[in-house]
Amino acid sequence: MKKRLVLLGIAALAVSVMLTGCGGKQQAKADKVIQIGTNAEFPPFEFQEGNGEISGFDAELIREIGKAVGMDVQITHMGFDAIFEGIDRGKVDAGVAAITITEDRKKTVDFTEPYFDAKQYILVPEQSNIKSLKELKGKKIGVQSATTGEAIVQEAFGKTYEGLKGYDETPSAINDLQIGRLDAVVVDSAVVVEFKKKLGDGKFKIVEDPALPVEQYGIAVKKGNGEMLKKLNEGLKKVKENGTYDKIHNKYFGNNK
Ligand code: ARG
């Protein structure tokens, strides 16, 4: 009788060790890699190198944030909209894509502390006399769909404004501006500066409308995922404190913040 009980005990122990062992392993694996969704068509924040590797300010920042909290980072390119869907469905842990923190988005995702300031700039041909967003009324305006650039144009001229053209990726809008299909493109400041450089001197100019609001970028996680949020905030704080953030910032934007 005693012997049987002991055997039973050993068997139970073995089973529980096996179970917790497996669970533990899975946990450790899931915990070690942070899956990141981005839309890598948004230089200098995220873009794909010739070999397909994703680099840019955001990409370097999130990799360093991962390092700071002892986690690997896997970045996947997807549509801008798909990032939010991916977060919602748990396909990715976080979105890092120059995502502006907005009240609307806060309904479905939680954001880390802000990590970058921006605003919408207007890119127009050099000879254009446009000085503000309002003056674009009646003109053809390109934006990336589902972005804050689209939102401010819709706010100014109505959701169904027929001059508004939404593109899946920002470079396609820039292309259409270049070939004269658009009168202007409205997109994030640092991105406009980057594209203007690429387009060459004397062809396009940047209009900064003082009436447009300042935006702040944050890393988005699924609403209620406090654990991931805490980790990312912790990493962000560390890279800001240890000079890594400044190093990456200087690499992409020079010394002037
Ligand atoms: N900051 C803008 C927004 O949040 C545009 C972001 C677009 N990002 C990108 N990777 N394409 O709506």
Automatic annotation (TrEMBL):
<feature type="domain" description="Solute-binding protein family 3/N-terminal">
    <location>
        <begin position="33"/>
        <end position="256"/>
    </location>
</feature>
<protein>
    <submittedName>
        <fullName>Basic amino acid ABC transporter substrate-binding protein</fullName>
    </submittedName>
</protein>
<dbReference type="Pfam" id="PF00497">
    <property type="entry name" value="SBP_bac_3"/>
</dbReference>
<feature type="signal peptide">
    <location>
        <begin position="1"/>
        <end position="19"/>
    </location>
</feature>
<keyword id="KW-0732">Signal</keyword>
<dbReference type="InterPro" id="IPR001638">
    <property type="entry name" value="Solute-binding_3/MltF_N"/>
</dbReference>
<dbReference type="InterPro" id="IPR001320">
    <property type="entry name" value="Iontro_rcpt_C"/>
</dbReference>
<feature type="domain" description="Ionotropic glutamate receptor C-terminal">
    <location>
        <begin position="33"/>
        <end position="255"/>
    </location>
</feature>
